[in-house]
Amino acid sequence: MNDNLYELFRSRFPADPSRPFIETETGRVWSYGDLQDVSGHYARLLASLGVAKGDRVAVQVEKSPEAIFLYLACLRAGAVYLPLNTAYTRAEVEYFLGDAEPRVAVCRPDQETGFAELAARTGVAHVLSLGQDGEGSLPDRARDLDPDFATVPADADDLAAILYTSGTTGRSKGAMMSHRNLGSNALTLHRIWGWRPDDVLLHALPIFHTHGLFVATNCVLLNGTGMLFLPKFDLDRVFGLLDRASVMMGVPTFYTRLLTDPRLTPGACARMRLFISGSAPLLAETHRAFRERTGHAILERYGMTETGMNTSNPLDGERVPGTVGFPLPDVELRVVDEKTGAPLGPEEVGIIEVKGPNVFSGYWRMPEKTRQEFRDDGFFITGDVGKVDARGYVHIVGRAKDLVISGGFNVYPKEVETVVDAVEGVAESAVVGVPHPDFGEAVVAVVLAKPGAAGPTAEAVVAACKEQLANYKVPKSVVFVDELPRNAMGKVQKNLLRERYAGTFGG
Predict the structure, then answer these.
(1) pLDDT for the residue 91
(2) pLDDT tens column, 338-397
(3) Contacts of 398 (CB under 8 A, 6+ apart)
(4) In angstroms, what CA-CA distances link 467 with 180, 455, 458?
(5) Can you tell me the distance from the alpha carbon of 344 to that of 188, in angstroms, rounded to the nearest whole number?
(6) 207-258, pLDDT tens digit by residue?
(7) Is 320 helix (H, G, I), strand (E, B) or coil?
(8) In Å, what is the CA distance from 96 to each residue of 115, 162, 218, 311, 444?
């Protein structure tokens, strides 16, 4: 039996290969037949360059149909796909190439010379290029090769991809994802989200990340249907396509931006079946406002680079604002005491740990770090702080590294942010801890005001917190900003805020 992920996808492809797979913003349509041909061309080229089972292929290119075909080609060739954020700098890319030691690196055409220099320094044998419009040395060299390529056999536990973590707490670590990890998670999501034979996905996410590639794209491939493929989120284009789509996956900023537009009405979303949000916390206020405007309750779920998806609000049932729903059917989830590792009961806040076929096999060439992140019974320590309520819904309170310890007391930023976000005129807040001479750390609330509204005052924020929170949780400083720093997936980069305001109290 061949457990290669590509074979799982292929088993679900439509009987008619002319069925659409990808439609671009220019109206060009790529069929499932095109998918098989182009990925076959690319796989043949990789094999001709000596790419063997287990070899890495590093890819830093713009979003395009051809980039999806390259991902599939790597699977077919038995290679390990290594997508890199397009925002990574030359120095960061050099680290990844040196660490992963890929046999082939694929870059944007205008960066081919620079990549060749990096390749020479890091021992990468071949550099190819692929542009957003399908141009470059990769398609040029692959075009005339035989597309009839037999998928390289793979065991379920063989590596399919390496995804580097964001590196906010040090050097990026490469999470090793197997064919089983990716396949099992996609099958579960496809089932619990009720994919239908006529579903069309509106795809506006990047594809160097779990959300856009291993959740969104893999679900479409398992469904054997099509997606409307936007290079990035654009309000006008999204509104122009909503009446042709039935499913959309987005980060919270997609939904907050949609809410600013008067075109967001029940009529505009009449054909839509499901809106899904992830990659960053969705404010309960956003959830409620979207439902009031459209009649749709956004389905929020929770996952991470190392595990794919772990939980989801129900397709049929109450989608509770501010929660990430229930553990997936094949995922075990528990909350434990951070110091002792003892399991905690309902409503008790601790560290979330998970176990299941979706959980990665470890960090690339970091056996000691891998051992540190797993319990003896196989549970992965996520580093996320949360609780399971009496109804079984999972709540994410924050990251363990974001925990603020002020005067010896633990302050969970999410609890404070919930209060601050409810203050009139506040659009969003981020709470961080910074050095303080007396308390060790002090709570700082960084606040983004709603556009066009009467701005909230620091006094109003502090007053609301004093009314609802213990004194040690009340911000000792409130800072107003025009924007919050975010990564490519919309997550607020609290490490940058901690650095920015580290000297607030002279610490």
Answers:
(1) 83
(2) 889 999 999 999 999 999 999 999 999 999 999 999 999 999 999 999 999 999 999 998
(3) 384, 385, 412, 413, 414
(4) 49, 20, 14
(5) 27
(6) 999 999 999 999 999 999 999 999 999 999 999 999 999 999 998 889 989 9
(7) coil
(8) 12, 11, 25, 30, 34
Q: Say how far apart CA 222 and CA 205 lie, in whole Å.
A: 18
Residues with Cβ < 8 Å from 75, sequence gap 6 or more?
4, 5, 6, 81, 151, 160
Q: CA-to-CA distance for 77 and 74, rounded, in angstroms?
A: 5
Pairing between β-strand 380-388 and β-strand 350-355 as defined by DSSP bridges: antiparallel
Question: Mean pLDDT across the chain, nearest whole number?
Answer: 94
CA neighbours closer than 13 Å in the CB half-sphere of residue 66: 23
Residue-wise pLDDT tens digits, 143-164: 999 999 999 999 999 999 999 9
In this prediction, residue 169 carries a pLDDT of 43
Distance CA 69, CA 147 (A): 12
Query: Do 421 and 283 meet the contact criterion of CB atoms below 8 Å apart?
Result: yes
Taking phi over 0 as left and psi of -120 to 50 as alpha, with beta for the rest, 127 belongs to: beta
- Give the distance from CA 357 to its chain's centroid: 18
Spatial separation of the C-alpha atoms in residues 326 and 391, rounded to whole Å: 9
Distances (CA, A) of 463 to 416, 423, 424, 455, 470: 12, 10, 12, 15, 12
Residue 175 and residue 361: Cα distance in Å, rounded?
Answer: 8
- pLDDT bracket for residue 170 (50, 70, 90): low
Query: Do residues 181 and 251 touch, judged by C-beta distance below 8 A?
Result: no
Q: Residue 335 contacts by C-beta under 8 Å, 6 or more apart in sequence?
A: 343, 344, 348, 349, 350, 351, 352, 353, 386, 387, 388
Question: Mean pLDDT, to the nearest integer, of 81-85?
Answer: 95
Run of H or E including 462? helix 458-468
Query: Whole-model pTM?
Result: 0.86
